[in-house]
Specification:
- By secondary structure, the chain is α/β, with parallel strands linked by helices.
- The protein is 19% helix and 28% strand.
- The protein contains five helices and twelve strands.
- Helix 4 runs parallel beside helix 5 (212-229).
- The longest helix has 18 residues, at 212-229.
- The chain starts with 22 loop residues before the first helix and ends with a strand.
Amino acid sequence: RGFPQTAAPYTRLPEKFKEVVTSKVWGLSQTAIGFNARFTTDSDEIVIRWKVREKIHTTMFFTPIMYCGVDVYARRGGGKWTHMSAAAPDFNTGVGELRLRWRKGDECLVYLPIRARPESFSIGVKKGASFGPARPHATTKPIVHYGTSIVNGGAASRPGLIFTSIMSRRLDMEVINLGFSGAGKMELPMADLVAEIDAELYIVDCDWNMNRQVQEANYEPFVRRLKELRPDTPVLLCGG
């Protein structure tokens, strides 16, 4: 999560931005894309249960697991992350349960659904087992990636394969996903929103949603505003 308090438990933006951003950005912000839970346990079994609000459907861009499922990785001793399992919920009820045999002491990373909004999400371990936070990331500040449909998970087969999630695992850094399909257009209020997160780096990846006219109107004011608010934080501008 990029913000400590959001409009609802599994959404991306605070309520104060509802009247500031476009309606499409706000609608897309009501998802948990990029959200994950990292923890350690000495239980030899983990149970993940969740329920999504929307009717489940798939398109050419979304598999069931990517749209409404969970994705699980394991890591031992600070080594590489290994993919363990993924699952989608029941298509009729929206309720999912994934049971995993677990190697005691391994760090666990669970990604939440990308598009279907979670109504509930819980993780269980055996009675009497320990359950605690994972070790801190290599850096305390995150990378913030603001962009379009690819950042928003387009065409990934499961939540852990969004490239912001891959980047997070490889760099051992938190990456805040601010992707908005078809709506990443660098409007000036979005600079204020992005700058609210104290980051190691801001990545701005919006060219794909802007024609030349929109670029000429929005690009420079957005960058100037972001640098005004965060003068010491580098900004990486991506373009085609």
